[in-house]
Design brief:
Elements (H helix, E strand, L loop, with lengths): L2 H6 L12 E5 L3 H12 L3 E6 L13 E4 H5 L4 E4 L13 H4 L3 E4 L13 H8 L4 E4 L6 H5 L8 E6 L2 H13 L3 E4 L6 H6 L9 H30 L12 H30 L8 H8 L1 H20 L5 H17 L7 H27 L2 H4 L4 H27 L9 E2 L2 E2 L1 H19 L2 H11 L7 H12 L1
Helix pairs in contact: 9-10, 9-12, 10-12, 10-16, 10-17, 12-14, 14-16, 16-17
The structure holds NADP nicotinamide-adenine-dinucleotide phosphate.
């Protein structure tokens, strides 16, 4: 923290309502930033340090004492020291007895130590009440008054009163405390800042892989094939035509992949005859990433809409229309109006619009601020029933796009079918399996399994025998 930072926001303590005194162990980056923020919010601060002398880096208005002297000034002590240096605290066990110790520490790696830092601190100072908090807030976020980063502070601890007091301080700083329960939750809280979009990794890599695959596939069919066979230069297609094929195909495939794990899970439950056996880890992880997969799919669908909107102003499209008109004028030829083609074209567009509308609705309802306002049943209705309707509409949009082209010989180039046919494989598979699963005879068994019935359990067999006796 720079000196200018402190000078830029002089703290006028007299104008603030003075709150309790808080002790901060350590005058490093985090200790100074937290002290500065607390002083701003009206707390009195006393720092504990190995070298207790006032420095220009420390916020004005704070005291600096030795660790043991500082500890005596407050019953709440925030330990802004790295775990590796906690040893000095054992010498202070007597003075720290009965005090609230707030552990803010993070590690360099996930699960670096067998126990969490907070639990380790509780073992070192058994007479103190250890509370884990503030570790997900950065020194930078505390310094920047605007707090652009997350305002949530995860708090956990075994002593209810101690935890409550820390949560009050969190609120006093304008932050939002989130009670995560006992100190057992500390490992999880300590792992949060070490994770980099854990739920987005799989959807991101999958989307990238699908995009690259379909892009190369389309390049072979739409650029290399015409060049080899007709010596035609179609490289201009790389800018709009091919992306406008790749994006909707990726969107539809990802949307189907949101619902595929659900049907796989249902098949597994039917096969095992119980819901009490764990799904394989890959299926568990896939199910947890469904929201992110859906949002990625929505992103690609939005790109498709944007690309589709610019089609009329493309040079190639304008040139083709102009050329066709001139050719027909010269030949004095007119195309008869085809009602079936008009129907196909309008249905294709209508299905696309409706599918996209529901897609956006699904995306909006997955936002926490919106999903918090609906109950579990409403959320399931939207995400499951409307989700399947979206999948049906988007699949139908692609099927109608194929329309008469499915029967055309040009559908195969070097034995490769058009890309949109590949895009239909997973959605159609999901919809067919789902259709089978909702048939009354299968749905009834599945519902019973999900309500706790087990095919091979003694209870279910004796219940069955009792039924047959009657
Ligand atoms: P830092 O700048 O290195 O400060 C650590 C402080 O610990 C030192 O300034 C020192 O203060 C004290 N200390 C006590 N015994 C020590 C020893 N044997 N060797 C070295 N220092 C000793 O680290 P920091 O960035 O402030 O982080 C402090 C804690 O906050 C860490 O546990 C970190 O995981 C956590 N944290 C940091 C951030 C962040 O953004 N920086 C965010 C969340 C959590 P004295 O010289 O005054 O004794």
């Amino acid at each position: 923290m720079e000196k200018t930072r402190t000078d830029a926001f002089p703290i006028t303590m007299d104008s603030l309502e003075r709150k309790e005194t808080i002790c901060i162990f350590g005058t490093g980056d985090f200790g100074r930033s937290l002290g500065f923020k607390m002083l701003q919010c009206g707390y009195s601060i006393v720092f504990g340090s190995r070298t207790p002398r006032m420095s220009s880096l420390l916020p004005n208005g704070a005291d600096v004492l030795s660790y043991s002297e500082a500890a005596q000034k407050s019953d709440i002590i925030i330990i802004t020291v790295h775990r590796e240096h906690y040893n000095f605290l054992t010498e202070l066990t007597e003075v720290l007895h009965g005090k609230i110790l707030v552990d803010v520490s993070n590690n360099r790696k996930v699960n670096q130590y067998p126990e969490s830092n907070a639990e380790y601190l509780a073992q070192l100072v058994p007479g103190a009440h250890v509370v884990k908090a503030f570790n997900t807030i950065s020194a930078w976020a505390l310094q920047s008054g605007a707090l652009d980063a997350s305002r949530q502070v995860f708090v956990c601890g075994n002593d209810r009163k101690a935890k409550q007091r820390v949560m009050d301080i969190v609120r006093g700083l304008g932050l939002t405390p989130l009670d995560k329960g006992s100190l057992m939750a500390a490992s999880e809280i300590e792992n949060y800042p070490l994770q980099l979009f854990p739920m987005w990794r799989f959807p991101f890599y999958l989307s990238a892989a699908l995009c690259i695959f379909f892009f190369l596939y389309c390049v072979i069919r739409d650029v290399i094939y015409p060049y080899v066979n007709k010596n035609e230069d179609s490289t201009f297609r790389l800018a709009i035509s091919i992306p406008n094929r790749v994006f909707p195909i990726t969107a539809l495939t990802l949307l189907a992949l949101v619902y595929l794990p659900g049907v796989i899970a249902a098949i597994l439950q039917l096969y095992r005859g119980t819901k009490y056996r764990r799904f394989p880890d890959w299926l568990d992880h896939w199910m947890l990433c469904r929201k992110q997969l859906g949002l990625m799919a929505l992103g690609f669908a939005c790109l498709h809409v944007l690309y589709a909107l610019v089609i009329p102003i493309r040079f190639y499209v304008r040139w083709r229309i102009r050329n066709l008109t001139v050719t027909q004028a010269i030949l004095k030829k007119e195309d008869p109006f085809s009602t079936s083609s008009a129907w196909l074209s309008d249905s294709y567009v209508a299905l696309g619009i409706l599918g996209f509308f529901l897609f956006v609705l699904l995306g909006i309802t997955s936002l926490p601020s919106v999903s918090n306002t609906v109950n579990w049943r409403e959320f399931r209705f939207i995400q499951s029933k409307l989700g399947y309707l979206t999948l049906i509409l988007c699949t139908a949009h692609t099927l109608v796009y194929g329309g008469k082209r499915f029967l055309s010989p040009s559908i195969l180039r070097w034995y490769l079918p058009a890309a949109y046919i590949l895009a239909l494989i997973i959605p159609c598979t999901v919809l067919v399996i789902k259709f089978i699963l909702i048939m009354p005879c299968i749905d009834k068994t599945l519902t019973r399994i999900r309500q706790g019935w087990e095919r091979n359990s003694k209870h279910s067999k004796s219940a069955l025998n009792a039924k047959s006796d009657i």
